[in-house]
Amino acid sequence: MQTGVVKFFNESKGYGFIVEDDSNRDIFVHITGLNGATIREKDRVQFEVVEGKKGLNAVKVKKLDADY
Predict the structure, then answer these.
(1) pTM summary value
(2) Which contacts of 15-22 are long-range, i.e. CB under 8 A and separated by 24 or more positions?
(3) What are the residue boundaries of the CSD domain, all occurrences included (predicted)?
């Protein structure tokens, strides 16, 4: 599992980006990859990365506790 910080997430459009801790790259996240979680900008998250149609996608996204 990777970790990172939510850079941007538009709830009405259902997508955003997470900055991965290890590589500092932007990973696309779609609302379908959240497993019912709610995320906002600056939230720390844990996720898996899969290859999507247009690049890397974050899936199985979970919000981490602030103490992480």
Answers:
(1) 0.90
(2) 18/45, 18/47, 18/58, 18/61, 20/49
(3) 1-63
Domains delineated in the chain = 2-63 (2.40.50.140)
pLDDT at 43 over 50: yes
12 secondary structure, DSSP code: T
Q: Which tens digits make up the pLDDT trace of 13-29?
A: 999 999 999 999 999 99
Token digits of residue 55: 């690049």
**According to the 3-state scheme, what is the secondary structure of 13-67?**
CCEEEEEECCCCCEEEEEHHHCCCCCCCCCCEEEEEEEEECCEEEEEEEEECCCC
* Rounded Cα gap, residues 16 and 4, in angstroms: 13
